[in-house]
Amino acid sequence: MTKIKTSVSFRSLSKILVVSSVYLKTQSVSPSYQTGILWVKKIGYYELYKPKERADDWIIIADESIGIGQEKVLVVLGIRRKDVDFTHPLKLKDLTPLLVKSKERWTGEDIAQQLKIVKDEIGGILYAVTDSCSTLKKGLRESEINHLYDITHSIAIVLEKIYKTDTDFKDLTNRMSQMRILLANSKQAHLIPPNQRSKSRFLNIDIISKWGIKALRALDKENVSETDKQQLSWIKEKQGLIEEMHNIVEVITQISILLKTYGLSNKSKKKCVSILKTCRKGRMKDFRKQIINYLESNIVHAQMRGEKLLCCSDIIESTFGKYKNEISKNPLNGITDLALIIPAFTSNLSTEEIKTAIDSCSTKKINQWNQANLCESLCIKRNAVFGK
């Protein structure tokens, strides 16, 4: 369980156990890193296939993540409505793994077929929380499962609509990129702006605005050299835009904490609308309008049942992040049966259950799961061409 709860590598964990054994003089045999990998796979398999409660109040969170090449792994996690604690954001141990399956290309029909299998196993699904992926939307639509848009991705889409074609924003990000290149190997490398990842630029405008605010403040400090101030002087031209983004980020933070912790309800919607009142003009007004549209279009599901709704899929993004941290050690392997670490992350097993999981799952079962649920990995394809 130590491995599942930390980011330490399998090899490092094996060495830590050896050192601990020597230091504590326990003279116990420490498992090799291959044994550690096998145990985690067994726990993941156990979590994925242990009997699930059949009920009509399941909520699912689904997403597909791309690996090296075209491989994508589809993951569905679930929680019963009665088990949702709206006093804190979801934790991995709150969730039940329902599906982990890879494919070179997922279609809406493929996803609908998998969701039907999930429904046959667990019973009724109240709604699903996902991003705006078109194949997921189609799969949910064909499965007749209500769809709630994840608040984090929805905010990112709103920001993209506002800033993607905005000449002022594009000029700011371009000049920040140029500044990184020009100063990277100079005496003033300490001034370079943060790296901008194009895929998540609009989701991370807080990184841009934070640096901009710091740069503006630096221009007013007496202990900052004139040479440094000269390099930062251009930022003054973008003060209005930077302060605007800074204010939007503050509003996003308040709304996100509220919705991710307490869920979407009539009460939380009113609080969000109250927070948004500070967005009165220009692009901030446009931001307010679009977020209110999101709240109103999704609150319908809550009004139908008079309840709070989960509206955040950050937990599954966190799961993918932890999984990618593992495969990053050898990304050219692609998606292998190490994907079983994903359901293992949700485990909250006792010592006895861990023993049961390891003893009851054979290597043969894992190999059978691999053949049934994973497409041919890059490692296998590469070995077929180049040999081992």
Protein described:
With 388 residues, the protein is of the alpha/beta class. It has two domains: 50-149 and 313-349 and 370-386, Nucleotidyltransferase, domain 5, CATH 3.30.420; 151-311, no CATH class. It has 17 helices and five strands. A five-stranded mixed β-sheet has the order 3-2-1-4-5, with helices on both faces. A hairpin with a 5-residue loop joins strand 1 and strand 2. Helix 3 (33-49) crosses helix 15, helix 4 (108-122) packs across helix 5 (134-143) and helix 11 (266-275) runs antiparallel to helix 12 (282-305). The protein is globular and about 65 Å long. The mean pLDDT is 87.
Total of DSSP H or I helical runs spanning 4+ residues: 17
What's the rounded overall pLDDT mean? 87
- State the assembly state of the protein chains: single chain
Largest sheet, spatial ordering of strands: 3-2-1-4-5
Strand content: 5-15%
Overall morphology: globular
Radius of gyration: 24 Å
Instruction: Characterize the biggest β-sheet.
Output: 5 strands, mixed
Helix content: 55-70%
Termini separation comes to 32 Å
Structural class: alpha/beta
The overall number of domains is 2
Order of helical and strand elements: HHHEEEHEHEHHHHHHHHHHHH
Total count of strands: 5
What ranges have pLDDT less than 50 throughout 5 or more consecutive residues? none
